[in-house]
Amino acid sequence: TIKAFIFDLDGVIVDTAVYHFKAWKKLANTLGFDFTEAQNEQLKGISRIDSLNLILGWGGVEKTAKEVQELATLKNQWYVEMINKMTAQEILPGVQSLLSSLKSAGIKCALGSASKNASLILERTGLTSFFDVIVDGNEVSVSKPNPEVFLKGAQLLQVAPQQCVVFEDALAGIEAAKNADMRVIGIGEESILKNADWVLPNLEGQSAAQILNKLEK
Ligand code: B16
Ligand code: MG
């Protein structure tokens, strides 16, 4: 039986990808090349440093390890300026009511995000108190598709991986959940998120009881 839900942040709870896009584009333009929405798509679920290394490769730019760190810090300053202004209005449809339905269904709740800014985003949007456990980019050493982020969540919640369901919008995250031997619900397009157990366009109208019912069939 399912005992815990583990949520990805960007793309499931809020759409911070638009802010990542603006900040990465500004950085790329500063370095003399462009950065497209399609490229931004490929960075979903990928850590900050791995993202930057991909972008520098696309731009054909070589930097020392020290310069890469400085550029990552600069991008993050721009990004944090934007997410500091986030409010509860930016929570994606259905998220609050699904989170509110977890307690009465006896389901524990964890965040499993690659972002080092996850706590700030949850604070700004007023969602912190819904989560029993927060595992983010500050606690993990390897990026999704490695299962570390989700396995840590299960461990801290004291449930087995097989008792967890992950909600994920990124291919790397769906692979991470599968690698953790967890069930996974893809949020987005079915044609893209092929390996998920099932795919929803968003969380609108979903309650914990409904999801459990469907998973146990
Ligand atoms: P930060 P998620 C991920 O969040 C984003 O999808 C990805 O685009 C970003 O590079 C990564 O967090 C790191 O974010 O720079 O804030 O540490 O989808 O795993 O919640
Ligand atoms: Mg995501």
Summarize, please.
This protein is an alpha/beta fold.
Describe this structure in words.
Mg(2+) binds at residues 8, 10, 168-169. It catalyses: beta-D-glucose 1-phosphate = beta-D-glucose 6-phosphate. Helices cover 43% and strands 12% of the residues. The chain is α/β, with parallel strands linked by helices. Strands 3-2-1-4-5-6 form a 6-stranded parallel beta sheet, covered by helices on one side. Helix 6 (118-125) links the parallel strand 2 (108-112) and strand 3 (133-135). Helix 1 (17-30) packs across helix 4 (65-83) and helix 3 crosses helix 4. It is globular, with a radius of gyration of 17 Å. The mean pLDDT is 96. Bound molecules: 1,6-di-O-phosphono-beta-D-glucopyranose and magnesium ion (MG).
**Chemical compounds bound to the protein:** 1,6-di-O-phosphono-beta-D-glucopyranose, magnesium ion
Order of helices and strands: EHHHHHEHEHEHEEH
C-alpha Rg (nearest Å): 17 Å
In order across it, which strands form the biggest sheet?
3-2-1-4-5-6
Number of beta strands: 6
N- to C-terminal distance:
11 Å
General form: globular
Number of helices: 9
Rounded mean pLDDT score = 96
The computed structural class is alpha/beta
Q: Strand share of the residues? A: 5-15%
**Largest sheet entry:** 6 strands, parallel
Helix content: 40-55%
Q: List low-confidence stretches.
A: none
EC number: 5.4.2.6
Pfam families: HAD_2 (PF13419)
Cofactor: Mg(2+)
Keywords: Carbohydrate metabolism, Isomerase, Magnesium, Metal-binding, Phosphoprotein
